[in-house]
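Input.
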Amino acid sequence: MASEAIGGGAAGIVRRVFTNRQAVLLALLAGLVAVFSQTSEYFLGADNMLEVTVYSAEIGFMALPMTLILVVAGIDLSVGSILSLCAVFLGIMFSRFGVNLWIAVLMTLALGAVCGAVNGLLTAYLRLPALIVTLATMAIYAGLAVGMSKAESYRGFSDSFGALGRGYVVIDGGVPAISFAGGGIPVQLLLLCAFSLAVWIIFTRLPAGRRVAVIGSGPEAARCCGIRVERLLTALYAFSGFMSAVAAVVFVSRVASAKADAGTGRELDVITAVVLGGTSISGGKGSVTGSLLGLLVVGVVQNGLQLSGVTDEWRTVGVGALLIGATTVDRMIRGEEV
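Output.
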């Protein structure tokens, strides 16, 4: 009884403190910035702040659909592998088969949507657990990426294509222009803002977004309301695959190289950002703005640890710890025993 009282009291305190999740995230972000500004003299530099947004944008493309998928109590572990497969596919189409680059980009986006739709069909119509399905396709898509590339990387992309990942929008003589020398707003950040606005409008202002929330509260209840649950779930996973392909295109543009390990480990950053932002892992609750704040926290942590000399392995440990902490807080807010 005493332990239950202590547990209930702790959960109650957490619920009161974390009532405004976004305010807490902003406070956490401010604290992280204060800490990392002391560990590295370069952290607060303008160039480094832009680097944080550039890294965050590629994760953000995948975090947007992940928010919706978690709201319907699903999950997509294959986003990083789809990114890798799409990056390799783009490189092969352009470098090996000589397909026009922009046509290859369209083909890559279509491939991503198909990969996501496969996840959706298996999850929605065969009623297989999303965790198992996307864990399996994560391995399948990653294996295909390695097998197709044969450990090669593909280069030779044009400067116009490079503008997607390395370009900055500047004002030159009163006219917007693309610069590769910095001094403006990264193109991929503008792309993320555009996609974020579109998803926010759909999720909060259109009937389709309300249907997503209803499914998260209970698929059977949603069916009783006349919602075509299977079709909407398939569309969500297809959208996730499409956005992973967008991230792949931007990644290849940024590094000017297509390789099979492009998306390795990205799913951890994506899920951590979304859960940090307040999207419930049990479904029914989530927000685009919260996910974007969580994304910024993950980006700052990754960048700050890197500048502090922390290795890749320990940075992954840090993000994993963030995910465990965010999940624990989520359960305590919902009043579950931890």
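Strands lie at 168-172, 175-179, 185-186.
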